[in-house]
Specification:
This protein is of the alpha+beta class. The N and C termini lie far apart (43 Å). The chain has a domain of 131 residues: Glutaredoxin (3-Layer(aba) Sandwich). The strands form 2 sheets. It has a 4-stranded mixed β-sheet, with helices on both faces. A two-stranded antiparallel sheet has the order 3-4. The protein is globular. The chain has 8 helices and 6 strands, in the order ααβααβββαβαβαα.
């Protein structure tokens, strides 16, 4: 009886997982709308721009509980997912991977040596690239970087702030985020605790 009970629980657990919770052979959680590229960052910036989008690189690693949470709670949320899909070309990198990457300065690296070169040590880390390629390494060319996992509104507002080019203005992200949260509360979309 107990074996049947646990078998039913296991099947239900698999069936109830969000569609975005699939895991690839590399152990990373996958979204069907992530872009597969040759990881030439200059080319990826140009491709994103041609599609009317911005390039965002997400560094993840096998077994990362924060990455899993990002996929299961944030990237599966229709409001978050739809906004990102409409405005960003997202390319996933494995923090310890061996796939070849071409940095904006032309250097050829592996994913893991790129992460070291650019100083990214947390997963997930999301790197937002400029609209035009430069010859500076990614970490210096990036317009914003989001290290770690956050709640829905911080996560989504960072994507909005980058899309709206908030980094070019005087409103720091934290001020922008606080303003948006207040607007959401005033509109009745958030509780006082959120």
């Amino acid at each position: 009886m107990s074996k049947l009970f646990f078998a039913v629980l296991a099947v239900l657990g698999v069936l109830l997982l969000p569609a975005s919770a699939s895991v690839g052979e590399d152990g990373l959680h996958k979204e069907p709308w992530f872009n597969m590229t040759f990881r030439d960052i200059g080319e990826d910036i140009a491709t994103a721009k041609a599609e009317g989008k911005r390039l965002a690189i997400i560094f993840e690693q096998r077994g990362c509980i924060y990455c899993r949470e990002m996929h299961e709670k944030l990237l599966s949320d229709p409001e978050v997912r739809d906004y990102i899909q409409a405005n960003f070309m997202v390319v996933q990198y494995n923090m310890f991977g061996d796939e070849e990457v071409t940095d904006l300065d032309g250097e050829k690296l592996t994913e893991k040596t790129a992460a070291r070169k650019w100083g990214y040590v947390f997963t997930p880390t999301i790197v937002f690239l400029p609209e035009e390629a430069t010859d500076a390494p990614v970490n210096r060319a990036a317009v914003a970087t989001m290290p770690g996992a956050f709640g829905k509104w911080t996560f989504l507002n960072m994507f909005r702030w980058v899309h709206e080019k908030g980094y070019e203005g005087d409103e720091h992200f934290q001020v922008y985020h606080a303003r948006i949260i207040k607007e959401l509360r005033d509109a009745g979309r958030l509780d006082a605790e959120e």
